[in-house]
Amino acid sequence: xxxxxxxxxxxxxxxxxxxxxxxxxxxxxxxxxxxxxxxxxxxxxxxxxxxxxxxxxxxxxxxxxxxxxxxxxxxxxxxxxxxxxxxxxxxxxxxxxxxxxxxxxxxxxxxxxxxxxxxxxxxxxxxxxxxxxxxxxxxxxxxxxxxxxxxxxxxxxxxxxxxxxxxxxxxxxxxxxxxxxxxxxxxxxxxxxxxxxxxxxxxxxxxxxxxxxxxxxxxxxxxxxxxxxxxxxxxxxxxxxxxxxxxxxxxxxxxxxxxxxxxxxxxxxxxxxxxxxxxxxxxxxxxxxxxxxxxxxxxxxxxxxxxxxxxxxxxxxxxxxxxxxxxxxxxxxxxxxxxxxxxxxxxxxxxxxxxxxxxxxxxxxxxxxxxxxxxxxxxxxxxxxxxxxxxxxxxxxxxxxxxxxxxxxxxxxxxxxxxxxxxxxxxxxxxxxxxxxxxxxxxxxxxxxxxxxxxxxxxxxxxxxxxxxxxxxxxxxxxxxxxxxxxxxxxxxxxxxxxxxxxxxxxxxxxxxxxxxxxxxxxxxxxxxxxxxxxxxxxxxxxxxxxxxxxxxxxxxxxxxxxxxxxxxxxxxxxxxxxxxxxxxxxxxxxxxxxxxxxxxxxxxxxxxxxxxxxxxxxxxxxxxxxxxxxxxxxxxxxxxxxxxxxxxxxxxxxxxxxxxxxxxxxxxxxxxxxxxxxxxxxxxxxxxxxxxxxxxxxxxxxxxxxxxxxxxxxxxxxxxxxxxxxxxxxxxxxxxxxxxxxxxxxxxxxxxxxxxxxxxxxxxxxxxxxxxxxxxxxxxxxxxxxxxxxxxxxxxxx
Amino acid sequence: xxxxxxxxxxxxxxxxxxxxxxxxxxxxxxxxxxxxxxxxxxxxxxxxxxxxxxxxxxxxxxxxxxxxxxxxxxxxxxxxxxxxxxxxxxxxxxxxxxxxxxxxxxxxxxxxxxxxxxxxxxxxxxxxxxxxxxxxxxxxxxxxxxxxxxxxxxxxxxxxxxxxxxxxxxxxxxxxxxxxxxxxxxxxxxxxxxxxxxxxxxxxxxxxxxxxxxxxxxxxxxxxxxxxxxxxxxxxxxxxxxxxxxxxxxxxxxxxxxxxxxxxxxxxxxxxxxxxxxxxxxxxxxxxxxxxxxxxxxxxxxxxxxxxxxxxxxxxxxxxxxxxxxxxxxxxxxxxxxxxxxxxxxxxxxxx
Lengths: 799, 352
Known about the structure:
The complex is a heterodimer. Chain A is α+β, with helices and mostly antiparallel strands. Helix content of chain A is 27%, strand content 29%. The longest helix of chain A has 16 residues, at 372-387. The model of chain A has no long low-confidence stretch (mean pLDDT 93). By secondary structure, chain B is of the alpha+beta class. The interface between A and B is large, with 97 and 91 residues.
């Protein structure tokens, strides 16, 4: 809501600087998001009388040459439009003047051979309206030489206020002024309404009938006759523009002006175009069509409420009028609507039609049900004043009056909630500041009479919030409750954090991807059964993801495209799988699985100081091993290659006991090519819950060995196809009495290794718990190892 | 060999030894020189072996002299060895010299995502205060996400423009949770008061990605329900949090706000951690950063889970992790968080 400060001060003459006022409102919960100065930069524009206008004699484009008098003499100005006449008073920006739309001072310039001293201003150039098709003609009585900014309020400040959905009363200048008054103690008064009414009765000029009083509890009509439609006063146009509305004509502007001022949406009908003339408020017929003011043909249903004349619909209630009965240049008699509509009804219609208007936004949040009368009178008064019309006597008033709610507030309850001892008097005083009636009924109860505009005050807690607001939220003290429990993490949460930290230690960077998947993403992992999103914004989020891998592959590709040469990342997040819908509505038929995804590609080292190489299967497996080790999972195994996403010779599934944990390996080169990922790409995806079941948390100290090991490097030649893991097992199992640690340090094939064989070299540490081993002990152990490896078809290489 | 000859020989060998040692260019040469001068088969050795054939007096004199010569030779040898060792050490060090401006061998450090790092920090503050962490599903029902939280049927937040719904035939009430507040209900349904929990997690809104919006973001929800809890407890708890998160100098500002599941409702702002409150681009010149929404649990919410709102009161707060992370690290665009860009991620190595 944009509030022009000068307008607010008309109702609440508060004596505060702009910044202080903004602070006061913000602390009250009406957050001033921006302080706008739409007329900043306007200076030196004065009212000048046109002495003479003539066509420019020698210009190709139409130009007019005017002589204007600013009281200090006559000046020649060249204008691009000629809508003004001799005797008119116009805004003249003299050389040296500034206007908001231009960055530079105006000067003297030559226009097709004629000197122009400054310029004459259009409404847009003065930020009065968006109109740039004509020079603004000021009211005839404007004193020549007067400063235009000062005379028409074009030096004001505008607050842009964030209105919370529960406070529709703040969608009006009056509502905001009321808050300022409550916070500062400044006086507050609504604009005075003084109507001069003719002897003719409005009730004789038109009829009103409500056929659905639930959706339209009240409908008031005023009649104004003999209006002359034309522009509204300059200041009014300027204020509407500053508030974000478009000035149209004196009659329409009056309805909008009063809506902004008091919060009551109004509508003016051209009586000559109303059959009857009469108004019927009724549900729309099924399929009823209406051409609304925005030039759109709308199809309605009985869910919508329609304002009709005695023959056909002339507006969608509380949302928008139709083009049929719209006020136009030729209108002379106006029927003014000021009504109350049910919030939900307007909300549904506006939402269904996708039509949000200043009126619907107010009605759907709640307009003061006590307000239509004052607003109708105020608007009638302004129309009469600005258009010369005559207001007929009385108001056509149909429907019922609002009955105020009463809410009981217990000071003891307020004290408990606010953490401060509050008496009945404190509570009453708070409401006094808000100008809301509150009476002490018993010693322990104050009854608040809720005015219509405060739709948010429904229960005791709502009213206690008001007490807190008036006393100042920021004055609330600080205490820390004694929590009688020790804090802690849910095991699943703690485990996930442990996994992340382990992967970080393994040199991976955590990344996040969105939880959605496109059909293409599902195709990558060959998933056919995914949870569908009902209202996806784009095809990219048509499904919920079933795997973290597509997101990670996107990340790899993004990095490679950016010229990043080494990427090793992980993601921890949920994946989603559809399950059978059960009869129990508390069972959500979507299973969520926490997964760990890993992806890496690019260089492992750049060549300095180690040999250059690419990340590959073994870097990936190293990360998986590091993760398993740090989770204390020992008995995990690799199994057969997992599927078409993976390189068949460089991938494996992971199991612990009988349970499948996931899979890892290099991306199948054909898939990589399709995804624009060349080079080796390592990917892994593991199931969090399975890991959690097998992880161990305990760390137990093991005694340090007292005697140093004897080291033997053993190089074996084995038939190709014997797994390194089997050889390792043979070595370690060969000498049961000694401690044996073996680690692979070389794998090679080709000469001198014979065809069809592989060379595997292990560093073997032999150790006895009670003595240092001798060379003889070692020789005996090596012989035992040799024998065991021979069972696999292997032999020790000579030398 | 007579005594005089022996003495001469000793002097000559002493001189020869000194010269040989001094002339030795390496430890190897020095060792050869030692063998040549002082070894078993050396002239000096011959003199010593000949001692036995000398008369008593001569033997004593020559023997004494031989010992003197041996000591002198040994001293000359040691001195030269030390010299040569020092030289050799220097040479070896010189050979080892590297261009110290060559780049180092880089470790491959990992890193946590800035959102994870921020979440971990937030969670730690509250677990220290005695809160337990709870978690729940990301696909929720409209009961937990809206209805039980006192959000009316017609509330705009329920619309398809704001909420992402899940398409499961036979179930029209499934959605991606729009706030971690759903965990308030799940927790209270399961447990009796007192309840002190926080619920971190991923939430979803129907937003097109731009610098300040993503369809996915993260929150930490807090809920405390007990006998006698008041707004001062809420404020105090949040002040503790702000202090722990942003340091002792951080001040907080408490203003009214509206959320259907709390009443009274409020918003907590913290002095801008970029400018310290004097106004800058990060805080839009206001000096304050909006940190979280909060309030006293609405009596309808307590009633919805079967708690007696007359006996129990509570407070709740919901904090956007992105807001904390973005402001804290000066990240200009939310989309960066989901780009997977390593150049972005590696900037957070230090916070891991």
